[in-house]
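Long-time lurker, first post. I've been practising inverse folding by hand and with some scripts of my own, and I keep getting stuck on stretches where the structure tokens seem ambiguous. Below is the full token string for one chain I'm working on. Before anyone asks, I'm not after the true native sequence, just a reasonable design that respects the backbone. If someone could post their per-position residues I'd love to compare against what I wrote down in my notebook.
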């Protein structure tokens, strides 16, 4: 039996605050070849998923939030009930797959059962099929979910230390000991203050910046507002080789390029809606990993702007190796991998994206400058310190606070953009090659569009979830992202212009 951390439980509270949202995340693996026999596939997936203890647990909550939610072991569970079957009208294309994915993701997971589902999807043209993994955000972050997709493969089963869920393993009393003694609460508040002071000047500065970003209203934009129960899903694709060329030419990181492309995508959306992109129109929330063993050599997100690609692009001296070196160490299923550690283990940064700029080089330069400044300002430390300090507060108070804040309309953050590492090697499921992988982010807190980025093989994909009613133009965003990377690639291959930006970017 495991208690959820304050951070993990916060995703449950945020979901409870809005009946129209589902805080599930996931990913899609597209495979080539005819799908295997369904019963054989179910048996195989069940065997591999059964090796993850968190997937055999069921959520238990306490009345009035008088204790942290608990994951209870249910070894007798038949995991076959969590594996679903669906098909798009044959011959289905990517648009059909994305529509089905949206309909699956928008539905809340039943809390009476394990908080995950695995969908086998057939009917795709060109002799393809797909696996969609869906897991509640209280059990896993993006890094954990990427690892889960890997563990479903022939390459990833067996020798792994991975567990899903960022929980604390600890003894549980039959009845959680909760006190309403104000002296105890006061002591916790004092400890919280002391912890905040102890983080140092950098974290204090970062705290001020984070709070300012969260509380300061951004531009008046249609990207914010209530959401419906229905979703749209779309994806943009880019070549890692092209991104490598951009990084090398302009001395920037993979995350810089991705955020610059997102900037151009949102600029196109705003212009298409007849809105003027302003300097403060688009503040984005960028999650940052704070895993305990994070370091530039082992953690995919140890430095938020760094590349998380591996393989051919990391050989030699390149911007993807230094400063944005590959952070995926070795085969994903062996040894102490950064993906093997349980995880909602994240902090955040809140950069403004320069949607007011039309020139792609200006967009990239400003994104690079702002990300560099955010990394050095203490925003990452501030977020992790706040999360750690929250553990000192009685759980009923933190639960009430999260639910209350989640219901308050916010105008500061417009979207979320998260980048997670994917497998570097070709994956197979029952001998079928995984040819593409797409990430699936959630949306909540009146953010109508969320973006997740994932590297796999030689491809970098942007998975986009949007509210159905308020974002019928989601394709404009994906087209803008792909267009931006194409333009930056063309400019990167013009040596004189590339060198000019490189000099400006260092200023």
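-- Answer (accepted) --
I ran through it position by position. Result:
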């Amino acid at each position: 039996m495991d208690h959820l951390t304050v951070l993990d439980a916060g995703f449950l509270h945020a979901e409870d605050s809005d009946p129209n949202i589902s805080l599930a995340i996931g990913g899609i693996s597209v495979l080539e070849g005819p799908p295997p026999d369904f019963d054989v596939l179910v048996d195989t997936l069940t065997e591999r998923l059964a090796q993850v203890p968190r997937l055999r647990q069921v959520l238990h909550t306490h009345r009035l939030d008088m204790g942290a939610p608990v994951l209870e072991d249910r070894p007798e569970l038949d995991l076959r009930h969590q594996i679903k079957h669906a098909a798009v009208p044959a011959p289905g294309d990517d648009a059909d797959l994305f529509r089905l994915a949206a309909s699956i993701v928008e539905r809340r997971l039943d809390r009476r059962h394990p908080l995950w589902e695995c969908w086998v999807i057939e009917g795709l043209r060109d002799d393809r099929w797909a696996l969609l993994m869906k897991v509640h955000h209280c059990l896993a972050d993006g890094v954990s979910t990427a690892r889960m997709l890997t563990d479903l493969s022939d390459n990833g089963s067996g020798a792994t230390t991975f567990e899903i869920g960022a929980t604390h393993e600890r003894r549980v009393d039959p009845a959680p000991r909760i006190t309403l003694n104000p002296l105890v609460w006061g002591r916790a508040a004092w400890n919280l203050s002391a912890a905040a002071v102890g983080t140092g000047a950098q974290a204090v500065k970062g705290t001020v910046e984070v709070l300012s970003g969260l509380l300061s209203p951004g531009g008046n934009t249609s990207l914010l507002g209530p959401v419906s129960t229905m979703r749209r899903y779309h994806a943009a694709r880019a070549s890692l080789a092209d991104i490598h060329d951009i990084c090398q030419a302009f001395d920037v990181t993979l995350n810089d390029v991705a955020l610059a492309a997102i900037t151009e995508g949102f600029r196109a959306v705003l212009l298409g809606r007849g809105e003027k992109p302003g300097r403060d129109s688009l503040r984005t929330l960028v999650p940052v990993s704070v895993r305990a063993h994070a370091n530039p050599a082992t953690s995919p997100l140890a430095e938020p702007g760094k590349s998380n690609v591996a393989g051919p692009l990391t050989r030699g001296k390149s911007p993807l190796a230094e400063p944005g070196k590959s952070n995926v160490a070795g085969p994903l299923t062996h040894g102490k991998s950064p993906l093997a550690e349980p995880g909602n283990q994240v902090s955040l940064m809140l950069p403004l994206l320069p949607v007011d700029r039309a020139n792609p080089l200006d967009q990239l330069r400003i994104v690079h400058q702002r990300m560099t400044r955010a990394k050095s300002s203490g925003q990452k430390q501030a977020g992790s310190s706040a999360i750690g300090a929250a553990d000192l507060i009685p759980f009923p108070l933190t639960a009430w606070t999260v639910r209350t804040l989640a219901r308050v309309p916010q105008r500061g953050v417009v979207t979320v953009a998260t980048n997670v590492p994917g497998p570097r090697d070709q994956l197979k499921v029952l001998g079928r090659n995984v040819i593409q992988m797409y990430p699936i982010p959630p949306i909540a807190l009146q953010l109508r569009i969320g973006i997740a980025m994932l590297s796999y093989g030689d491809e970098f994909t942007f998975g986009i979830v949007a509210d159905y009613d308020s974002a019928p133009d989601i394709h404009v965003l994906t087209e803008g992202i792909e267009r931006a990377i194409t333009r930056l690639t063309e400019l990167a291959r013009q040596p004189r212009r590339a060198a000019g930006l490189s000099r400006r970017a260092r200023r």
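A couple of notes from the structure itself: The chain has two domains: 2-169, 201-505. The chain is about 35% helix and 20% strand. Happy to go over any region you disagree with.
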